[in-house]
Each structure stands twice: as structure tokens, then as C-alpha cells.
Amino acid sequence: MKNVTDSFVFLGHWPSAGSFGFNTDILATNLINLSVVLGVLIFFGKGVLSDLLDNRKQRILNTIRNSEELRGKAIEQLEKARTRLKKVEMEADQFRVNGYSEIEREKMNLINSTYKTLEQLENYKNETINFEQQKAINQVRQQVFQQALQGALGALNSCLNNELHLRTINANIGMFGAMNEISD
Distance (Å, rounded) from C-alpha 69 to C-alpha 17? Predict the structure, then answer.
């Protein structure tokens, strides 16, 4: 049995020229095995790997293209929104200015209307006062005239005889007739 184990131990010492055997140098065999595996992978896996990378590249490019399109649309919408905002702000400013001027105009109209109404009320008041004063003056005149007439008639009746009384009445009637013609 010792011969069998000795033969495996001394396998590394066999001469390499023209013979076949096991190489027990681990570093040398690993490099050779690794390069063979890599060669096979590159030779057979090259197409698959290339296809995978191409597909990935196309997906990335499509994503970038879609992103650029979306970005362009978003910028366009943003510009439209800014334009609409400016337009709305201008309209709001115009409405505000028009509203203030309309409020001022309505205020002035209200003040003028109130002033005219107060002026008319003042005129009506003055006319009413003048009318009432004239009415009161006319009533007082009428009462004074009636009292004076009654007093004069009483004095005349006590002082006058019938003939003188008739002449006085005729003279007074003539005076009243002339007064009525003047007032008409």
C-alpha cells in the first residue's frame, strides 16, 4: 500500500516530456483552468451577453428619450401655465383698477344724488315754510280785516243815518270791486 501512496506523492516529479500525468502545482493549474473556462464563456456567451447588453442599452435609451419628451412637454405646459398666469394677473389688476374706479364713481354718484336730494328737501322745506307763513299772514290779515270791518261797521252804524249809511256802503262796494279787479 505504501507503493500506491508513494506513486501519488511522486506524481509531481515525473518528467513532463512525452508523458501524461497530474500537475500538482495548484497555482499553475488554477490559472490554466480559469483561462479555459473564460475562453469557453467568452466564445459561447459572447452572443448572449451582447444581446443582453444591447437590450439593456435600448431600454436605457428609450427611457432617456421618453424622459426628454416628457420634460419637453412639461416645459411647454409650464410656459403655457406661466402665460395664462400672467394673463390672469393682468386681468385681475384690470378688474381691481376698474373695480376701484367703479367704486369711486358709484361713491361720487351716491354723494351727488344725496346732495341733490338734500337740496330738494331743503327747497321743499323752504317752500312749505313760505307757504305756511303766507297762509298764516293771510289768515291774520283776514281776521284783522274782518275785525276792522266789524268795528268800522259798528262805528258807522252808530254814527250814521240811513242816507249816509247807504252812500258809505256804495263807496265801499266800489272800493271792493276795484280791489277785486286789481287782484285778478
Answer: 69
The x, y and z cell numbers of residue 84, run together, are 395664462
Beta carbons within 8 Å of 184's beta carbon, 6+ residues apart = none
Amino acid at 89: E
State the Cα–Cα distance between residues 27 and 81, nearest whole angstrom. Answer: 70
Rounded distance between C-alpha atoms, residue 87 and residue 89, angstroms: 5
How many CA atoms are closer than 13 Å to the CA of 150, on its beta-carbon side? 6
- The residue among 13, 7, 38 whose CA lies nearest residue 25 is 13
DSSP string, 95-144: HHHHHHHHHHHHHHHHHHHHHHHHHHHHHHHHHHHHHHHHHHHHHHHHHH
pLDDT digits (tens, 9 = 90+) for 84-98: 999 999 998 888 888
DSSP letter at 160? -
Span 37-85, pLDDT tens digits: 888 888 887 888 788 889 999 999 999 999 999 999 999 999 999 999 9
Cβ-count burial 27-47 (b if 16+ within 10 Å, e if not): eeeeeeeeeeeeeeeeeeeee
Residue 25: partners with Cβ closer than 8 Å, 6 or more residues away: 12
pTM assigned to the model: 0.36
Give every CB contact of residue 29 below 8 A, 6+ residues apart in sequence: 23
